[in-house]
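User: tokens in, sequence out, please.
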């Protein structure tokens, strides 16, 4: 499995593992999109990046692609546990303001369920 996908208190938690680089991202993106097809109205998606060891621009592309799909459905996308390397990529790609960012999964789920629910 490339990413663990589970529901927690109405939030879809996506936890990719390993390296989000190159061709592996196409498989991760397909896995995520298949899961999201089931959610038609305003899905809330949280990327827990704790187990991601490496990410390149195609990994960022995967995050942005999912964000765009969720936004079109009126949903929200957040990131938690992004390491320094991933945070730097988000800053360089000017994507820090695109994703909501939280310090813990618990904090993110609480915030995503209390705002605009």
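Assistant: Sequence out:
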């Amino acid at each position: 499995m490339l990413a663990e996908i589970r529901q927690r208190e109405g939030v879809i938690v996506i936890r990719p593992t390993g390296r989000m680089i190159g061709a592996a991202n196409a498989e991760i993106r397909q896995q995520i999109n298949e899961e999201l097809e089931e959610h038609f109205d305003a899905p809330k998606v949280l990327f827990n990046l704790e187990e991601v060891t490496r990410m390149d621009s195609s990994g960022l592309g995967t995050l942005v692609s999912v964000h765009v799909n969720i936004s079109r459905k009126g949903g929200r996308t957040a990131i938690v546990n992004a390491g320094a390397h991933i945070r730097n990529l988000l800053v360089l790609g000017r994507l820090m303001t695109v994703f909501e960012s939280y310090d813990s999964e618990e904090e993110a789920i609480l915030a995503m369920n209390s705002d605009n629910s």
